[in-house]
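Friendly challenge for the regulars: who can give me the structure tokens for this chain first? No prize, just bragging rights.
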Amino acid sequence: MVKYWVAGHITGIFEICDNQTDPLYIGSKGAGFSINRGVITEIEDSEKGNHIYFDGVEKKEAKISENILNQYAKLLNVETHTLGVNVLHSFEIPLSSGFGASAAGALSLSFCLNEFFDLGLSKEKIFQIAHIAEVIEGGGLGDVIGLYQTGWELRRKEGAPGIGITEPLIEDRKYIVATKTFGPLKTKSIIKNAEKKKNIVNAGQKALIKLFTNPSVSIFAQNIQFFTERCGVETKEVKEIIENSKEMLEVYVGQIMLGNGVFVLTQKRKDLDNLLVDYFEEEI
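First reply, four minutes later:
Bragging rights claimed.
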């Protein structure tokens, strides 16, 4: 058995960049952060074909994990069904809610398969395989390279690790970071919708101009509400929390992209208690 843990990732501002044909060059510019909750993946021998489990329940369709298996089968020059592995994903983060669960699952599986079959792939290649699966199967566009950077990150150029360009956001101010989720949103249904995509691109470009000039956590905080309100995917729950925060000083609220939930940056825990119920305090 081989086992890997990979962090979750939250994007607060982004611009879709998908005008290329090679998935390695598709992605997003943007900014976000990795958290200390994520996905644990284990693989073990299977006597009959491949089986994929989410928190102990077998999934008949798990496209991103299946894509990873297909890519590794090609590297091994075998048919996918002959790999003979059970894939066991355990989730510490919500699914389809903007926490990068699909990216963390893809990446942890990629690490597992590399070790399980003793392929000796580079870290960059392992990440690229996960990025390809994410792009092709409609997962996140920037989570994998965000995880490659770790911590607070700015994505200056789209693409997989080795192609995209990232840098750390300067942590010029310490914030308490909290999240609250209200349910899933399907990433693919948004990034493939022409009108929603246009709104996201326009809002992302405007918000990122300031970050590209001053790549700091405080500038990120000051622009997350601007992006959320202009990208056009706000839910009623997100809108309500943003409205409630507007009279609070130095409390910054953004929508978890792409999910029905919020993340809040503040220096005062009492502000979180006044704004949110049953929130989760994250560690970067």
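The chain has nine helices and eleven strands. The chain has a mean pLDDT of 96. Your move, everyone else.
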